[in-house]
Design brief:
mainly alpha, 11 helices, about 0% strand
Length: about 220
């Protein structure tokens, strides 16, 4: 069994609740209250700064140039098409890009910062794998609905599914799988801790979004 599959099984309950959440189900069938999406997007956009820093640091720690190239290409997607999606959505939905971070947002920002400052490639990968794999898993079943939704719903689905994004998740998983066997016991335990905590905080973020984040306008 792949190391990443085993890690996912360790976080099974939180994983299921994060990837099959009422928030994403409502998003995908077009019934999500626009105010819930407004609050969600404002909070999710606050992740980009720490995410970019984490991903860039992960690239710097990659063992070889070949190992770093897919992550570097993905960095361009985050700072390009995904960033543009947010700005277009903010304009159409009439909301600001800046908002006061909710506690759920702060918690995940802090985890990304901890992973980055650890200087450990495997810990950075553990958080990145969760952040992207969770989104791939919830979005993929809804891929065929995206074209029938307003772009601020549909494009959020298409950004997180399909061959290109599947390749990103596979790359991140493979990187973590490859370093796993060379880790010592205490290092594996740290990866497990960060992976499971990241899943827990992803779940908490969706629950916060479903309850409704405050909207800065």
């Amino acid at each position: 069994m792949r190391a990443t599959e085993r890690l996912k099984m360790m976080a099974a309950e939180d994983w299921m609740l994060a990837t099959r959440h009422p928030f994403t189900a409502a998003l995908a069938d077009g019934t999500l209250d626009p105010d819930l999406m407004r609050g969600y997007l404002q909070q999710d956009y606050l992740f980009i700064d720490q995410f970019v820093r984490l991903l860039a640091t992960t690239i710097a720690h990659a063992p070889t140039l070949a190992d770093s190239v897919p992550a570097a290409q993905f960095l361009g997607v985050i700072t390009g098409p995904e960033n543009t999606y947010f700005l277009r959505s903010f304009e159409v939905l009439g909301i600001q890009a800046q908002a006061e971070p909710a506690q759920e947002t702060v918690n995940f920002q802090n985890l990304m910062e901890e992973a980055r400052l650890s200087g450990r490639y495997e810990i950075m990968l553990a958080v990145l794998v969760v952040a992207e794999w969770v989104y791939l898993e919830w979005a993929t079943p809804f891929a065929d609905r995206a074209d029938d939704l307003p772009f601020w719903l549909g494009e959020w689905i298409t950004l997180h599914c399909g061959e290109g994004f599947e390749g990103v998740v596979e790359y991140l998983r493979t990187q973590l799988d490859q370093v796993w066997d060379d880790l010592e016991g205490h290092q594996k335990a740290m990866v497990e801790e960060y992976f499971c905590e990241a899943v827990k905080r992803e779940r908490a973020f969706f629950e916060g979004a479903w309850a409704g984040f405050n909207i800065a306008s």
